[in-house]
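Dear all,

This email documents one entry for the complex benchmark we are building for the journal club exercise. For each entry we list the sequence lines for every component of the assembly. Then comes the predicted three-dimensional structure of the complex as a token string, followed by one or two observations. Please use this as the template for your own entries, and keep the labels exactly as they appear.
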Amino acid sequence: MKRRNVVTFVAIAAMLLLGAATATAADATYHVVATYKVGAGSPGDIQLDAAARRIYLAHGDRVDVLDADTGKKVGEIAAKGANDIALAPEFEHGFASNGGGNTVTMFDTATLKVLKTIKLDGKTPDAMVYDGGSKRVFVAEPGSGTVAAIDAATGDVIATSAPLGGELRGMATNGYGDLYVAAEDKNVVHVMDTKTLGALGDFPVGSGEGPTGLTIDAMGRRLFVACKNGTMPVIDTDIGFTFEELPMGTGEAGDTFTFAPQGKGGWKGAIFVASADGTLSIERMLAFISYEAGTKVTLVKGIYAVAYDPKTHRVFVPAMSGKEAVILAVGQ
Amino acid sequence: MKLSSMKKLLAVAATVAALLLSVPVFAQMLPVSALKGKKVLFVTGEPEADHPTDDGLVKKHLESLGFVVTMAKETDPATKANGMDLVVISSTANAHVLQATYRDVSIPVFTWNTYEYPEMRMTGPHLHTDFEVVDPVQHYAQSFSELYGYIASATSPITESLGLKSELFGTLYLRPATVGWGKPAASARVVTNFEGFPRRAGIFTYEKDSSMYDDFVAPARRVGFYLSDDNFHLLTAVYGPGAKDPELRAWYSGLKLFDASVRWAVSPPVTPQAYDPSRLHEELAQAAKGKKLLFVERINAGEGKEADEHMVAHLKALGFDVTIADQMDPQAKADGMDMVVLSATCSKYKLANKYRDTTVPVLVLEGLFADTMRMAGRGRYVDYGEHGEEKESDDPPENYLNIVGAWSPMAAGLKPGLVKFTNETGTIKWARPTPDATVIATLPNEDEERAIFGYAKGATMDGGFLAPARRTLFPLDNPAFDDLTPQGVALFDATVMWTLTGK
């Protein structure tokens, strides 16, 4: 995955019916509960199919597939230069972006067989996101500054956007028409139409610098932006307004992460953010207009991807242990 | 070209040139590009570990506008402002320490330090009455109400520059936060207000030379803003797809209002011309020449008939082409006119609501017409009233006015303070206009009783009624024209001039 191996972040829901004080105590208990070894080579993005209990890890020339509960490797998919992964569960399709080859590998999540190698018009495909609303997989192409849309059912490239400007990084969608793309060197988030791939405008990121990772709370209409300067702007997506800035670890942050609300009405939760400086930062959601920084857990330098397991409430964080890649299972 | 034609052309050119040279130099809002290099003194309190502030963000923002920012402590002397173009006072500066340090500086001051308003003479001294700090801890529900501001003045340079109209807008992002409001003096322009109270001002401005609280004359422009210590970052704005919707752009205008207010503060002030009745008379004569004026009176009135005749003669002498109309004539009489004067000899009851909707500028000489003309509310002795009316007024007859808007050309160059208006005491009417009016004079010792004021075209008058053209009130009871002092005549001429030309 080029200079950024691992994708960071995950939002994990936390403590709802408890209170903030209880939550603080709970945060402090997070620690590494298991380590899954996956072999040599830097890891890339990680995705979890919670229902199937499978972890997908972009890992150099392949995608490793592990049992989420045991860490045992159950298979692999050839995907040279795999950067990022997107899963479309309703089609049982997975996609891995291959930066070097300007292609996307489409695979069957049931059989783990490659279905198709999708040739892109853009260059250096990197971050990907599946949008359930449009049934499309969107691929950021930083080399050409474009975004490609792939039909998640057929694997056909539907369209490639006009160049957006800036180095395109993490993406997120709201599920009802908007695609958000972080532009690291522009300090903005581009907003695009998922149907037309037309540019709809930009969101500034407050005092954040170097936005690289995005995740969204589509119900609360909140976009969380991981920035390299250790700031996480929380943006109201209705108006593109940064109303909160939370501290987080510094350095490279992930291309994707997951917001996983829990609790009454699916509102309250906690966001776990992994940063390249080795910090797993816990950001707590108290209400949809109120967030606060929680505990920081020190892991391993170079981390920046996470996947959240709603069954065990653990966070999976790819990391390097010596020369070997591992997945750290972090929980309470 | 024939010689006669040439002479006519030259005469026209000379008239135009004279007019251009003679009108006061109205300040324009400086373009953003002109802010580059302007020096700002930013007065803040000492940072406290457990008390977050947005002072750093404000400094950064001012610098992004082009300002060169120098920081100052609340204990620094006023001389620290020497050479600056603008003083900005944060609410983090302790007003009890700061006191009146910058009250007298002849440099514009922009502040969101609500407790500093009294020290600056921008409001009276009483908390809860003259100014208020709405804190969500103590006023939780009210702090939500303050998320909704109202553009009280659509004709202020600040709102005009943003194309905002009189309507609600979002002040701060959707979370309760501390805000401040002030109740400024009559001469202030209330740009925005809260909760339906006209003078519960969120943003208000004083032009240089206007009379602030206790008749303290503003040494330079002054601006009050509704912010508090740590909510600059919550000033509303819209980005992305929403920014294409004009309704959303208008709603989320908190940050734009901040920027425009700063820009107004640092722009050159209006420079009034010195008091010179003969020059004013000449200028008015040039402007009035050939202009059609409808003078509406009660024909064959008893008291006031003679004064009306003299007023008409005065207007004719200025060059107006005067047409007399009776109070019972239809409003259509105003069609094609350049200006209408409603004499105090008219019966309010008989005049009805006529001339309220005319798109011709109207000068109203009778304060009782304020409600029918929508220039004020409908409460007698609350929204309009009089001094010296036998059986109808508790207040004694009066013959002085207090000039509070000396900066305006309607003030005829008179200095702030009391001016002898008529030779003898008599009836003087007043009204209480909306915040979108420019107030020139009040009754003495009665800040709320405004005697001379004007609405620009499009201004929001009572009940949201938009002024179809300029509207002015000049309190000239039936026989009073004949009793005007020279200063009173100058005020009359200046008001006629503004009503006719807006200058």
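Observations: The domain at 277-501 of chain B is CATH 3.40.50.880 (Rossmann fold). The interface with chain A takes residues 57, 173-175, 233-234, 236-244, 248, 252 of chain B (CB under 8 Å).
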